[in-house]
Design goal:
- This is Aldose 1-epimerase.
- Pfam families: Aldose_epim.
- By secondary structure, the protein is mostly beta strands.
- It has a single domain, classed as Beta-galactosidase, Chain A, domain 5, CATH 2.70.98.10.
- It is built from 1 helix and 29 strands.
- The chain has a 9-stranded antiparallel sheet with strand order 11-12-13-14-29-23-22-17-20, with no helix packed on it. Strands 1-2-3-4-5 form a 5-stranded antiparallel sheet, with no helix packed on it. A 5-stranded antiparallel sheet has the order 19-18-21-24-27, with no helix packed on it.
- A hairpin with a 3-residue loop joins strand 11 and strand 12.
- The two termini are 24 Å apart.
Length: 343
């Protein structure tokens, strides 16, 4: 396994950003950058052996700073939405920085996606790893406590991409980390993902209000457009879902287990998602709006999908949801594995 390190650019405030390319030498490779601990690129072969890009990313650092819809970003402190940009913890109310109307989305405008992480790379015969680390100070985007965070990417020779997160704090604080990669197994810009075949190991999804904040109710997927327990095209019931999918599903089972399988009939590419977290946000790129990405490629709305493994949205305000509070005597851990193959 090989690791190639290059300078990707310099931020507006003068910080150097590095790009690391991990390559199996067998057609699978990925590039990650230290801005936002971001997955910039993932390349793999199709059934004809042709290697191509399957995730969305930008060519320049300025694009990530100025117009990034979280392409491949590490999200934190809290992935997804916190209603009213506030929560009460141990009797104290915390007001967060709002960035989606009255709510906070993906950790706020200065969240983990928009900072430069420290980085270090390692390689061995069967895998290569980049470990990113960041110290989020007390009060960052309104969250309490100093938080020490690591996010690592490991590419194995089999074409598996392993994402691992860890965090420790000196004060109780919500923590919910994920990766926000956008995928199109036919290749970004090749068209919509509505013909991709999806299986979701989820018997329930979270009901949301008009602002996409969970009401607290878990709704059975049976008999609804949200039932992906048996494989079906993403677009089969699309007309019944207002504006496309942007919903958190309650993953069946506990521990490290399979969350989803996505297959692209046109290329034979297949992606399995495995994770330790209780939820997965399924998003169909509803607001991409022909955004231009690397290589001058234009990606339309519904031209990519996200499967973001995580705690449930608005968990700090929903006691019925799995607990998301990290305390000083604990370590937050989260593992997600993306297993790519060709059939």
């Amino acid at each position: 396994m090989q690791v190639d390190k290059k300078t990707f650019g310099t931020t507006r405030d003068g910080r150097e950003v590095y790009a690391y390319t991990l390559d199996t030498g067998k057609g699978f490779s990925c590039t990650v950058i230290s801005y936002g601990a971001t997955l910039l690129s993932f390349r793999m072969p199709d059934r004809e052996g042709r290697v191509g890009e399957i995730t969305c990313g930008f060519d320049s650092l300025s694009d990530y700073e100025e117009r990034n819809p979280y392409f491949g970003s590490t999200i934190g402190r809290f992935a997804n939405r916190i209603g009213g940009a506030r929560f009460v913890l141990d009797g104290v109310e915390y007001r967060l920085v709002a960035n989606e109307g009255a709510n906070q989305l993906h950790g706020g405008p200065g969240g983990f996606h928009a900072v430069v992480w420290e980085s270090e790379a390692f390689s061995r015969e069967d895998a290569a790893t980049v470990v990113f680390s960041y110290r989020s100070p007390d009060g960052d985007q309104g969250f309490p406590g100093n938080l020490e965070v690591t996010a690592s990417y490991t590419l194995t020779e089999e074409g598996h991409l392993i994402l691992e997160y860890a965090a420790e704090t000196d004060r109780p604080t919500p923590v919910n980390l994920t990766n926000h990669a956008y995928w199109n197994l036919s290749g970004p810009g090749s068209g919509l993902v509505l013909d991709h075949l999806l299986t979701l190991r989820a018997s329930f999804y979270l009901e949301v209000d008009d602002g996409l904040i969970p009401t607290g109710r878990m709704i059975p997927v049976e008999g609804t457009p949200f039932d992906f327990r048996k494989e079906k095209p993403i677009g089969r019931d699309f007309d019944e879902v207002k504006g496309g999918y942007d919903h958190c599903f309650v993953v069946d089972g506990e521990g490290f287990r399979q969350v989803a399988v996505v297959r692209d009939p046109s290329t034979g590419r297949r992606m399995e998602v495995w994770s330790t977290k209780p939820g997965v946000q399924f998003y169909t790129g509803n607001h991409l709006n022909d955004i231009e990405i690397a290589g001058g490629v234009s990606v339309p709305s519904y031209g990519a999908f996200c499967l973001e493994t995580q705690y449930f949205p608005d968990s700090p305000n929903k006691p019925v949801f799995p607990p998301c509070i990290l305390r000083p005597d604990e370590t937050y851990r989260h593992r997600t594995e993306l297993r790519f193959s060709v059939e």
